[in-house]
Design a protein that fits this description.
Helix content is 53%, strand content 18%. It is α+β, with helices and mostly antiparallel strands. The protein has a four-stranded antiparallel β-sheet. Strand 1 and strand 2 form a beta hairpin.
Length: 167
């Protein structure tokens, strides 16, 4: 029978790491230091593997069970949930590396040495003030034309027409 929220909350550290089983391969691992970790034990391609589902109390029992069910659906479709998680993380890192801000800063670093210092300072200041707050964290591939047009419109809205013209 799965542990109740009260049982999970009251689980205390012991001399050794111990587990409270929840079902379908999921369990709560209680460390000697008192940390409580949701884990999923599963088999893929004949090998036993484990997947971290989160840390209690940030991840509740209900949320951990939802994550377990999602992982089991992946397994049912022949996909290793551990590898799928690694792929998702790599994609997130890739999107961050190709964010508008990262690409704009790379462009700036390449061209700034040929500019007068005051001009370079103005360019980076305009980017940081007017563009990065709205487009900086977005992946280049996800940005659409109307979003780009919205940037100088915001600058116009605050009355900086010359700066908007330069955008």
């Amino acid at each position: 029978m799965p542990p109740t929220d009260v049982e999970v909350r009251n689980a205390r550290p012991r001399d050794k790491i111990y587990r409270l089983t929840d079902g379908s391969g999921m369990y709560l691992e209680v460390s000697q230091a008192g940390g409580k970790y949701w884990r999923l034990k599963y088999r893929f391609a004949g090998k036993e593997k484990r997947l971290a589902l989160g840390v209690y109390p940030e991840v509740s029992a209900k949320e951990a069970r939802t994550r377990r069910d999602e992982a089991r659906k992946l397994l049912a479709n022949g996909i290793d949930p551990g590898i799928e998680r690694k792929v998702q993380r790599a994609a997130t890192v890739e999107r961050a590396a190709n964010s508008f801000e990262a690409v704009a800063r790379e462009w700036f670093a390449r061209h700034a040495p040929g500019w007068v210092k005051t001009h370079a300072d103005k360019i980076i200041a305009r980017l940081e003030k007017d563009t990065f707050p709205w487009l900086g964290g977005r992946a280049i591939a996800e940005i659409k034309a109307p979003e780009v047009l919205a940037v100088p419109r915001r600058v116009e809205g605050r009355g900086a027409l010359d700066t908007a013209h330069r955008r």
